[in-house]
Each structure stands twice: as structure tokens, then as C-alpha cells.
Amino acid sequence: MALGRPSVFWEQSRLNTVMLDFSLGVKSPGLGICEWLLTILSFLFIIMTFPISVWFCMKVVREYERAIVFRLGHLLPGRARGPGLFFFLPCLDTYHKIDLRLKTLEIPFHQVVTKDMVTLEIDAVCYYRLENASLLLTTLTSISSAIQLLVQTTTKRLLAHRLFCRR
């Protein structure tokens, strides 16, 4: 009886893990048969047309950039490519370059009502630098609007709890 329970627990644990991976949208590791076949055919085509095709398979990423490579629409495992040369399959892969330099974003005027009912109009300038390029590309559609909303709500929240009138 005790020997049967761990296997049931293991199956239940495995089932929960699979369901958790499915609910988070995580792709199972490994390639399917069609992906392997297309990858092998693409490599064979590159080898057959080697002198010409090598110029289409090598790309340069500058020091301040990173390249995120997608193969057949799936993010390739590992970190972002760069700086330097990287190899990709032109028929199967697409890449996006992300600039990692310091950027500025001007936050427009917005009104804040403080704790003592004083109305303030404030604007701001935000400086930001991207750290994880692949996470940025796969989770956000517009980084500038996300940062602008974050800065506005943070300043409103900070200033709304302050007192500015002294009695």
C-alpha cells in the first residue's frame, strides 16, 4: 500500500507541473519532428550554397545592442545574442535588435491632489536602461507608455500622502 502512494503522488505532481506549464504558456522543451526536419533542410541548403549563403547567415550586433532570435516563432533558449557576430538561419529565424543604451522619457504635466487638498501640476523626466532584452521583447508591446504610466502613478502615489500647507 505504501509503495503505491509515491507513484500516485509522482503522477499527480507531474500532472500539476504539466498543467502549470500549460497555463503559463511555457513551451515544452525540445523540438517537434517538423521543426527538426525544417532545421536540417535549412542547414543542408546553407551548406550547398556555402559561399553565398554565409553572408546572409551572419549578422553583427554592436556593443550597445542585443539580438533576440526567434526560430519558427519560438524564442530560442539562452540569453540574447551579442555583442559581436551571431549565426542564424535566414529561412527559419527572425531576429530583433534591442538598444540597451540609457534612454530618456519626458512625462507630460499631470495633476496631483495631496492629502491636504492642494492641487499640484507636475511633470518629470525619466531616465531608464534596459537590462533583460528578451524579457522586454516577449512581455511588453510599448516600453515608453508602460514607463510613462509607472512614473505617473508612482509620483501621484508619493505626493498624494504628503502635506504641503502648514497651519
From TrEMBL:
Parts of the chain that traverse the membrane: 36-58
Boundaries of every Band domain copy: 59-161
Keyword Membrane listed: yes
UniProt-annotated location(s): Membrane
Keywords: Membrane, Transmembrane, Transmembrane helix
GO cellular component, one term: plasma membrane
InterPro entries for this protein: Band-7_stomatin-like (IPR043202), Band_7 (IPR001107), Band_7/SPFH_dom_sf (IPR036013), Stomatin_HflK_fam (IPR001972)
Pfam families: Band_7 (PF01145)
Family designation: Belongs to the band 7/mec-2 family.
The protein, known as: NPHS2 stomatin family member, podocin
Organism the protein comes from: Buteo japonicus
